[in-house]
Amino acid sequence: MPEPINTRFTIRVYGIILNENEEVLLSDESYMGHRFTKFPGGGLEYGEGTIDCLKREMREETGCEVEVISHIYTTDFFQESKFHPGMQVVSIYYLVRLKDTGCINVSDKPYNFPEDVERGQSFRWLSLDKLTPDDVTLPIDKIVVEKVKEER
Hints:
The protein is globular and about 40 Å long. The protein has helices at 50-62, 139-151, and strands at 9-17, 23-31, 34-38, 41-43, 66-74, 88-98, 121-127. A hairpin with a 2-residue loop joins strand 2 and strand 3. The strands form 2 sheets. Strands 4-1-6-5 form a 4-stranded mixed beta sheet, with helices on both faces. The chain has a 3-stranded antiparallel beta sheet with strand order 3-2-7, with no helix packed on it. It has one domain (9-151): Nucleoside Triphosphate Pyrophosphohydrolase (Alpha-Beta Complex), CATH 3.90.79.10. By secondary structure, the protein is α+β, with helices and mostly antiparallel strands. The protein starts with 8 loop residues before the first strand and ends with a helix. The longest helix is centred in the middle third of the chain and has 13 residues, at 50-62.
């Protein structure tokens, strides 16, 4: 008998936010004992479209309203979830604009929250000129860094 096909998926939707200084917004987070840097965004909920998900995630994470400008990338290879083995991750990235540039609380240093906090999160701007794939943790984000830099 053939092995069952994996039917467990998670769909993640992320926003690439650039400011007027050509800096990109990064989210430093802690979850399940890991610290990582990624683009802001999160998981699609049942009944949502991807753009609705992104707008909700941006409101929840940053308190900001965003305008979606364009689609940047959708995962085109298999990626297993680091946090949930046996689950495939499909990530969708959009270029977005903050409707109010002063709405977000940003830090000047990574991980600006206590080390032992579970689900800690802080935001910071990083110059697009200085941004490299090594600045983000998730494998799909590393590809998106290259795509964003190529398009700029």
